[in-house]
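thread: overnight batch results

M.L. [08:02]
morning all. the overnight job finished for the chain we discussed friday. pasting input first so we're all looking at the same thing
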Amino acid sequence: MNRDEAKNILLLYRPGTADAEDPQIAEALAVAKRDRELTDWLEEHCARQETLRAKFRQIPVPPGLKGQIISEQAARDRISSWRRNGIFAVTAVVAGLVVLASLWFTRQRTDDTFAIYRSRMAKIAELGYRMDLATNNPEQIRAYLAQRSAPADYALPAPLEKTTTTGCAVENWRGAKVSMVCFRTGRPLAPGQSSDLWLFVIDRAAVKDAPAAGAPRFAQVNNLMTATWTEGDRLYVLGTEGDEAALRQYL
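M.L. [08:03]
and the structure it wrote out:
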């Protein structure tokens, strides 16, 4: 199954339902896990689905609707004009909400990309990645990133400066390069895992709605606790499994 085939199938996918048990959808989801571009698209698709669900839940149920449905099933030939108008009104409201939700999500995706960026970086750390350079030498990491025009002039908090590095990779965010620096905290690692603490650095101007300078902001993103801060023209996202206290010790 190629990317386009998987995307066409995933258009029918509704997160949080039994859809994932369907063999075709399960195969398409597996393809998405291996394809970062498709993973990004799937994340936005799921966000649209959640937005529409939330809007539908806000639709008030008209009084007597249940009785109306039962009555219509028993005597369809006697549907009165006011009932038809009521159904038409509900349909119009639903259609309007669908349009509004679509417009709302489009605006959010355009104007509020920081949350999407943070979620995307967390997924890279969670779902697996290939380090471009494996080394515990911080200077080699900076040199490698600089050679590839990725942010290499990042400033690390003192505790993080003392944490063992394991390597780095260069990721992309809508045309901008992201430096991914991998660390090892010393906690037991799962088989095949070489890092359990990840730092993502990008030019702040490349991420819309990036937070202003100030104290780090903590947020749980999927299975990772993340801390985000801005310093100079760089935006930093640090993530690890655990709670806020587990992450704060590196700041």
